[in-house]
Amino acid sequence: MDRRLALVTGASAGIGEAFARIYAARGWDVAITARRAERLDRLARELRADLGVSAYAIADDLADPAAPTRILERLAAEGRVADALVNNAGYGVPGHYADTAWADQAAFLQVMTVAPSELAHRLVGGMAARGFGRIVNVASLAALVPGAAGATLYAASKAFLVRFSQSLHLETLGQGVHVTALCPGFTWSEFHDVTGSRAQVSRGVPRWAWMSSGAVAAAGYAAVEANHPVCTPGVANKAAALLAKALPERVGLAVMRAQGPRMRGRYGA
C-alpha cells in the first residue's frame, strides 16, 4: 500500500493498456477499467505476475452515469486512492449526425466528456491536498484540426478535453498536480475496428503516419511528468497540428470538405 496507484480507463487494449504497462513497469500499482472483464483480468494477472505490483481489474461501462462512483468506491473498499488518472476510454459514433440515434450520442458524450470530467473532479482535490497527482486526458489530433463530416461529436469532445486540461493545468500549478492533454493521431489500436473504418484508413493513410500505442503512451507519460499541458506525439502529428493552426479556418474547412469520406473516422486515439 506504500506504492502509488494509477487509475486507467479504457485499459483493455490500445493506449490504455500501454499506459497501464508503463505505470506498472515504473513500480506503480494500477487500477484498470473497461467493459471487457476477461481482457482486464488477463492484463491484471500478467502485471501482478511479471512486475509484482497490485493490479485491480474493474469491469464497468462509463456510459452509465453511476460508473465513476462505482469505480472509486471499489478502490476505497481496497483502502486505495488514485495518485494518477488516465482518462483514455473512448470510441466514435460513425455516420452523419442526423442519421444517428440521440441515445447513442448521449452515451457517447457521457463516456467522452462527462465521465472524465467527473473522475478528475473527484480526484484532483485529494491529489492537491497530498501534494502529488497526475492527470492525462487522452484527446486527439482531431481536436487541433478543423472538423470533418461524420463522427460529428468526436472532434468536439476531444477539443473539450484539450481546453479542460489546459484550464485544470493552470488551476493546479504549484500544487504538485500535473495535467496533460495527449493528442495522438493515427494509432495502431482497436479504435478503427470498433468504428468500422479500419479498411478505409488502411487504404488512405501511409504506414509512416501511424504510431504504436506504446509510443503514444510513452510520450504521454513523459509529457505529464514534465507538466506539459498539451502533448502532440510524433513528427507527422506535430506538423499537421502546426499547419492547421497556420491555415485560415475557411481554407482548413475547404481541405476537410475536399477530403470527404476519406477523412471520416481517420483521427482517433
Number of helices: 10
Q: Can you write the helix and strand succession as a string?
A: EHEHEHEHEHEEHHEHEHH
Task: Tell me, rounded to a whole number, the average pLDDT.
Answer: 89
Number of separate domains: 1
Question: Cα distance, first to last residue?
Answer: 32 Å
Give an account of the 3D structure:
This protein has 269 residues and is α/β, with parallel strands linked by helices. The protein has one domain: Rossmann fold. 50% of the residues lie in helices and 14% in strands. The protein has 10 helices and 9 strands. The strands form 2 sheets. A 7-stranded parallel β-sheet has the order 3-2-1-4-5-6-9, sandwiched between helices. β5, α5 and β6 form a beta-alpha-beta unit. The longest helix has 29 residues. The C terminus is likely disordered.
Brief descriptors of the model:
alpha/beta; globular; 269 residues; two-stranded parallel sheet; single chain; Rossmann fold; 10 helices; disordered C terminus
Topology:
Blueprint: E1 5-9, H1 14-25, E2 29-34, H2 37-51, E3 55-59, H3 67-77, E4 84-87, H4 102-130, E5 133-138, H5 152-171, E6 177-182, E7 187-188, H6 191-195, H7 198-204, E8 211-212, H8 213-225, E9 230-231, H9 235-246, H10 249-259
Parallel strand pairs: 1-2, 1-4, 2-3, 4-5, 5-6, 6-9, 7-8
Helix pairs in contact: 1-8, 4-5
